[in-house]
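Sequence only, no structure available. Ideas?
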Amino acid sequence: MKTPQSLSRRHFLGAAATAAGSLAMPLALHAESGSAAIRGKAEHVISIWLGGGMGQIDTFDPKGKGDSQAKKAGAYYGSIATAVPDVRVCEHLSGLAPLMDRVTAVRTVHHDVIDEHAAATNRMHTGRPVTGTITYPSLGSLITHERGAVSGGAPAYVLIGYPNVTRGPGFLGAQSGYLYLTDTSRGPAGLSRPEGISTDRQSRRERFLSALGSSSGPSDDPRLRDYEAAIEQSLKLSGPEFNRVFQLDREPADLRNRYGGEFGQRCLLSRRLVERGVRFIEVSHNLNFLNGTGWDVHNEGILQQHKLIQELDTAVSTLITDLESKRLLDKTLIVITTEFGRPPEFDGGGGRGHQGSAFTCVLAGGGLKHRGAWGETDELAKNIVANPVGVPDFFATVCAAVGVDYRKSLYDGDRPVPVTDRGHPIEALFA
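Reply:
I predicted one. Tokens follow.
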């Protein structure tokens, strides 16, 4: 028989367990359950990809200097002050230092992928681990799917770099895919008419294609419909009007020179694509490495790492000021991401290994309330001390900035797939 005392005790224990569970629930879930989704006002995203793994301690999260010869852990370079008090960056980021009031270095991004570049690249493009049951869409494809192109005469998503499944639409289908190019001296090969194909011959081909499509009737296969839509868009974009965006020689010579080499020209092209109405542009910085290894600075690769940092600094600082001069910076979110960071310790050859426990990704412009840096790591940029930001949280911040509901689900058939794997934005950047 249950006594009043036992019932009272059971009620107390149940209430205590409920309270404890409530306290343990992530803050993000509390915030999402009782408030509207955060929504920024940016219209475009320029995503800069640093393939290989940018070392946070040698760039945007500098600490005390180490010594590779003595195997003393620490930064490879000195640091300098920025426009934001108490926020310092590497000495080779001298162009960005006075602009850090338009920038937030998110210093506490983290994931559990360490020693596999391909898996980490997938994680930082899709926000999820590799799985054999579903092909997840990239962040660019998610935003493309949700927002489309800004202008009807432009593609929604352009990749300046080599194509890869991690950049692609996954289960969203071809209409959320990208147009790509690898050479800024000419437009995408897929939009260029082959030699020997005259305007009249191209017109005849298009008429024949149209007649063939009409005779076959509409298809119920979504894959075929996506393919037909992609062909239709390609034909629209192959004309001279859109292709003028790739003519960088229309820009003033002094501006082109300020952007720097091939990577800088990619950043300049990204600004022109924004003006043309492209929603999402990825710019790859792992195609013209200056040190033989790129950002993957094992062993002797670290000796010329400063050249990569300087090239990044030149191009991105010019992109920020160029967008600002055209009143496009608040409408354009610049995102800098990489596979993972680098540990403070030096390897046997004087370089650095991989570190996923704490690394830096960067946001600039986009109408955010920038603060120079967000999150805090320890004295060696190895462990997170305050304000950790998981990859889903970083994705949610980007989505929120460009007006995508980071809380909704998309569907792979009848299977719901959360847009950002239940991430929550960095609210302080929207306050």
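The CA atoms of residues 2 and 301 lie 73 Å apart.
Hope that gets you unstuck.
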